[in-house]
């Protein structure tokens, strides 16, 4: 697949780039994509939720009513989950939600996601971003030039660039990712994937 390289104003530079067919033109494996997204979202969970069961709440253990003759069910403790202030029955406790997938599965998932984006013409290639100082206004102008100011977009850079990251981090619908850390979830959670010219080679090296 060959795409035009645009400048930061959204205009064609007259140059093109060839996207590797073994990464951007494969038959997507939807089940592998599902597993990769499930892993990503599960690994975001802290798992620090907790609740107190009847042996953890502080209430009297004195039998508060007689066994028979009240017309109600027998009860021996206010810690019973049936009473207000009692313990929680089968409540959540801290646990880990982490899921681990094989490396080859995650690579195939990213290739499948990239191929889906390419098939729907949702990939744009631009010249490398060079900001001398972190300026959100400057990054906002780039989005306007590419007509992405009202769309969800992910910008992929070859390496971490603090000037670019600081310029775009406050923009609500924009995410900036390093090529080697680009996840299946990030790819599919955007309407447009913006690849900088140098990031294509990094993606190729990471997924080959």
Can you walk me through this structure?
- The chain has 208 residues and is α/β, with parallel strands linked by helices.
- It folds into 2 domains: 155 residues, Ribosomal protein L4/L1 (Ribosomal Protein L4, Chain: A); 49 residues, no CATH class.
- The protein is built from 7 helices and 6 strands, in the order E-E-H-H-H-E-H-E-H-E-H-E-H.
- It has a 6-stranded mixed beta sheet with strand order 2-1-3-6-4-5, covered by helices on one side.
- Helix 5 links the parallel strand 4 and strand 5.
- Helix 2 packs across helix 3 and helix 4 crosses helix 5.
- The two termini are 17 Å apart.
Approximate helicity band: 25-40%
Order of helices and strands: EEHHHEHEHEHEH
Mean pLDDT: 93
List how many beta strands DSSP finds: 6
Radius of gyration: 27 Å
CATH homolog superfamily of the largest domain: Ribosomal protein L4/L1
Number of domains: 2
Give a brief outline of the structure:
This protein has helices spanning 21-24, 30-43, 103-119, 136-145, 162-168, 184-188, 199-207; strands spanning 2-6, 12-18, 123-126, 153-157, 174-178, 192-196. The chain has 208 residues and is of the alpha/beta class.
Name its key features.
single chain; 208 residues; alpha/beta; Ribosomal Protein L4, Chain: A; 2 domains; 6-stranded mixed β-sheet; 7 helices; 6 strands
Please outline the helices and strands.
Elements: E1 2-6, E2 12-18, H1 21-24, H2 30-43, H3 103-119, E3 123-126, H4 136-145, E4 153-157, H5 162-168, E5 174-178, H6 184-188, E6 192-196, H7 199-207
Parallel strand pairs: 1-3, 3-6, 4-5, 4-6
Antiparallel strand pairs: 1-2
Helix pairs in contact: 2-3, 4-5
């Amino acid at each position: 697949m060959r795409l035009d390289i645009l400048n930061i104003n959204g205009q064609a530079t007259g140059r093109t780039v060839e996207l590797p067919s073994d990464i951007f033109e494969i038959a997507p494996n939807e089940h592998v994509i599902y597993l990769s997204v499930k892993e990503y979202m599960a690994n975001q969970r802290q798992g620090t939720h907790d609740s107190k069961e009847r042996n953890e709440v502080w209430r009297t253990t004195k039998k508060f009513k007689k066994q028979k003759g009240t017309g109600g069910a027998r009860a021996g403790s206010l810690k019973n989950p049936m009473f207000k202030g009692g313990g929680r029955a089968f409540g959540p406790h801290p646990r880990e939600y982490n899921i681990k997938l094989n490396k080859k599965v995650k690579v195939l998932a990213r290739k499948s996601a990239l191929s889906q984006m390419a098939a729907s013409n949702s990939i744009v290639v631009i010249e490398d971003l060079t900001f001398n100082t972190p300026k959100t206004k400057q990054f906002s102008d780039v989005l306007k030039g590419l007509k992405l100011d009202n769309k969800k977009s992910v910008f992929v850079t070859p390496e971490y660039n603090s000037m670019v990251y600081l310029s775009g981090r406050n923009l609500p619908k924009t995410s900036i990712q390093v090529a080697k850390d680009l996840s299946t979830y990030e790819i599919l959670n955007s309407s447009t994937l913006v690849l900088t010219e140098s990031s294509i080679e990094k993606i190729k090296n990471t997924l080959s």
